[in-house]
Amino acid sequence: MAHSERHEDLVAALAAGMELSSAERLELEAHLGEGCARCEALRRDLERAASSLAAQAPAVAPPPELRRRILESLGPARVAPSPARGLHAGIWRILAAAAALSAVIVAVDDARLRRDREDLQSQSAQLAGRLQSAETELAQRALRARVLESDDVRMLILGGQGPQPNAKGRVFWSARARRGVLVAGNLAPLPSDRQYELWVFQKGKPVAAGVFDADSEGRAAFESTDFPEAEAQNFAVTVEPRGGVPAPTGPIVLVGSPT
Amino acid sequence: MRRIEARDADALGELYDQHGSRLLGLAQRILGAGGEAEEIVQEVFLYVWRAAASFDPARGSVLTWLLIVTRSRAIDRLRARRPAASGGAPVRSLEELGEGPASGDDVEADSAGRQWRSLCLAAIGQLPEDQRRALELAYFEGLTQEEIAAKTSTPLGTVKTRVRLGLMKLRERMRPYWESGSHGS
After folding, report:
1. Which of B49, B94, B175 to mutate to test the interface with A (most CBs of A within 10 A)?
2. Percent residues over pLDDT 90 in chain A
3. Taking the complete model, does pTM exceed 0.80, yes or no?
4. Total domains in the fold of chain A
5. Tens digit of pLDDT for each residue in A114-130?
6. Contact A205/A33 with Cβ under 8 angstroms?
7. Sign of the alpha-carbon torsion through B117, B118, B122, B123
8. Can you tell me the ipTM of this complex?
9. Could you tell me the residue range of the domain that residue A207 belongs to?
10. CB B66 within 8 A of CB B12
11. Interface of A with B in 115-144 (CB under 8 A)
12. Which of A60, A107, A157 sits opposite B28 (nearest CB)?
């Protein structure tokens, strides 16, 4: 779609750190996905301008132990094996536009991610108890391990939207393993002809990544085996007809941005 | 940043020495004094350590990148405090936050930092009141356009325009400084 002042409003809102509605976000992602040089330049400039506001917050001398804590937590000085170019484009686009400034992509192996892994593993263990066949259980555990133990695993927190503002979720994914795991909670039960569908945003477009159901307590632990290979910029979950659809039609209930 | 990418921990330490106090100040402005603000700073530097390869100098300065990451994480934490679907009532009043620079110690790391700060404050000071207010509500309190409209009793479209014009004015005021190639934002 052609560049218009409306797009400039959206870019400015993002640059100021404001969240866009799902519709606005998708509209802007689609526009940026087509490549709009004016919006790209505007986004850079207005982000930089917005960061000037930070000058109003006086600098505060940190306690001396903070520096030590940080340097000690860096871990072994190894070179993280990441696909550098893809990571660069992916992270910047996510930080700056595709998911609004409030989405955080974490590509670290720090204590918090270890805790998340442990939480995920215990949740997985609980949910595994409800699966129907032992073979499925075993295969799914292997898949989870493959994602979580990949050294390029990344995480995005998803926030509830629209009809399910209290829904929450996280996606862990490994581009190398081509697998992603969604862990979600507070999902509403759906009518029998509907299912939740996971979407991965690439180049501004949503790509179907599989369907799943929530359990009786509103939780879901879903492994996407259809995980698209190219750089993931954002994730969303919508409600679709059972079996899924190739392009999103239903309401967005989770998207990369905690609200 | 290249040194950090090459796993030079001293380089990360230098980055911390240069910008840590500013990032902590920003996190505190948003979250209040306390452990959470320090946690944010710690997370940000760990993130930089891992994601240094993703820094693109064509998009802005290192300081801009750090401020964006810091603000984003701090707002995430701030939102986590709010009860769900509360309509975004701010957790802290402006009086609590205390506007303006703190009296007493100047903890700016260097003269370049002081220069950046005074230029930014001058640019912000020249904004029309309603544009500045809308931007502050968005940036420091993480309010949405709708929440700002409700809080200031203005139409949504007016809020969008104020945000856009305010940022564009800031851009115009700061542009000579950016183009002079000075380090800092």
Report:
1. B49
2. 23
3. no
4. 2
5. 666 666 666 665 555 55
6. yes
7. negative
8. 0.87
9. 154-256
10. no
11. none
12. A60
